[in-house]
Amino acid sequence: MNHEPSAGRRRFLKHASLLVAGTQASALRASAFAGAIPDATQQAKPLPTTKGSDAVVDTSSGKVRGMVEDGIRVFKGIPYGASPAGTNRFMPPKKPAPWGGVRESTAFGHDAPQVPLGSNYDYSRIIDWLRFPGGQGEDCLVLNVWTPAVKDNAKRPVLVSFHGGGFTGGTGANILYTGHPLARFGDVVVVTLNHRLGCLGYLSMADIGAPPEFAQAGVVGMLDCVLALEWVRDNIANFGGDPGNVMVFGQSGGGAKVSHLLAMPSARGLFHKAAIQSGSTLRAATREAAARASEHLLAEIGLTKKRATELQQVPVAMLMSAQATLAAQDPPFDFSPSVDESIIPRHPFDPDAPAISADVPLIVGTTLDDYSWWSTDFDLDDARLRKEVATMAPGGSDAIVAAYRRAFPAASPFLLLGKMVTDHARRRDAYTLADRKAALRHASVHMYILEFPSPAYGGRFGAVHATDVPLVFHHTDGLAITGAGPDSRRMADQMAGAWVAFAKSGNPSHRGIPDWPAYTTDTRQTMIFNSTSRVANDPWAELRAMWSDA
């Protein structure tokens, strides 16, 4: 069942809205510890780089020249689609026009236009969320490839990452998604990409009187993702990858995109394994909600429905301003994929799992303290904790706080609250999605919870949202969210090892972790990733059950 937020939960989660639902949040106070935390990129070591003929590859649109970084071939900013600006705005993506000669692919392409994260500066810094390596621009249909070798017919597994940030923010060029360490560690090909976001990707115009050619405007961001996967199918063999063995994965908004791809007929056959990290999405936006958001955007800009096509000429900055204004309202208006008649014909995992991807093995998971990212109120006391819990579960706060205190006696009130909100929302959806996938009794599903805490801010954030991202990418060099200590490196070995094993065989077990059994609705086996990982049956189920009526 999809759980609509109550008034109390909406108020409590308002600060979390940008990453979770693609909306803008109000600013929170800066932490007293901020000066001690470096930007995520400041400590990263540069890799030795060379150029040569072994970094030139043919694609369906022309030759591209990358570079060799410490033995890994790297190609950045390869167009997989034509510019979606001008008369292509709000239209389904088109393949790029062919080019002559050799295209330099050594710098990231444009990031999709977006409004930067508007809350919790401290958390934004440790995930490097305020940096846009390619600069923002509508010509953003680009991807990046990391591979151990090219043109060698090695048929390596291909791991395609969809970035986080809800459906309104983020970039595949974020340092957390650097593919070099994973390509080297697993002898795999890694792909990251950018696509349209926010109102440029999800402005539903079908029900506001726009001409028929705008019928798919509300889902073009997801069509961009499909076109990128088609590019992988058509070109990745020349980059040393196997187009018949593609794994898609994503965290937060990236997981939401994977959730939708699993239900999209146009994506069928383009990938063969999948992983959803802290982004389990049961329902898409309804057509009615999407139309209301579009109507409000028109009104904010000062256009009537009869002038909807003029949105193709409105400056991007004006669109982003209007989008931010709508996102700051209570309740907010956001722009995300909506159910339509053909592209997204059903909700991703409601009322059941999509049969169209029944044969795709799946990893699903969360971090223990996912929602602790929303604040730096590390000095939260028990009185304020109970007050916050009462907004989510009126009349039940004392029992809930006592139960969580018994389960996590050493946790601060701040981290107890983070666990509670995670269980109340994101983790409940993850288990619901896994239950529905397992009920198909076809391809396996594997559940995990990351218990390993981020060392940032002295561990005060706990196992916060996105802690698993660099671990899956086997990337801990100089990153504040993971640190570079031996424990973090061991965790990276465990998690990246599981993703690589899963990409290769559909089974995430490897010799660095206990056997990771398939999830069933009877026992709900869950891998608990930590310095010493373990498998538990339905862990902390009694805590999640306390929110069933909240």
Descriptive overview:
By secondary structure, the chain is of the alpha/beta class. The chain has 2 domains: 18-356, Alpha/Beta hydrolase fold, catalytic domain (Rossmann fold, 3-Layer(aba) Sandwich), CATH 3.40.50; 362-545, Rossmann fold. Helices cover 29% and strands 14% of the residues. It is built from 15 helices and 15 strands. The strands form 2 sheets. The chain has a 12-stranded mixed beta sheet, with helices on both faces. It has a 3-stranded mixed beta sheet with strand order 2-3-6, with no helix packed on it. Helix 4 (180-186) links the parallel strand 8 (156-162) and strand 9 (189-193). Helix 10 (382-392) crosses helix 11 and helix 10 (382-392) runs parallel beside helix 12. The longest helix is centred in the last third of the chain and has 27 residues, at 413-439. It is globular, with a radius of gyration of 22 Å. Mean pLDDT is 91; it is low at 1-44.
Distance between the termini: 13 Å
Shape: globular
Largest sheet: 12 strands, mixed
The total of beta strands comes to 15
Order of helices and strands: HHEEEEEEHEEHEHHEHEHHEHHHEHHEEH
Compute the average pLDDT. Answer: 91
CATH architecture call of the largest domain: 3-Layer(aba) Sandwich
Backbone CA Rg: 22 Å
> Helical segment tally?
15
Low-confidence parts, pLDDT < 50 over ≥5 residues?
1-44
Write out the CATH superfamily name of the largest domain: Alpha/Beta hydrolase fold, catalytic domain
Q: In which order are the strands of the major sheet placed? A: 1-4-5-7-9-8-10-11-12-13-14-15
- Tally of separate domains: 2
- Report the oligomer: single chain
Strand content: 5-15%
Q: Enter the CATH topology name of the largest domain.
A: Rossmann fold
- Reading off the top of the CATH hierarchy, the class of the largest domain is best stated as Alpha Beta
Main structural class: alpha/beta
Helix content: 25-40%
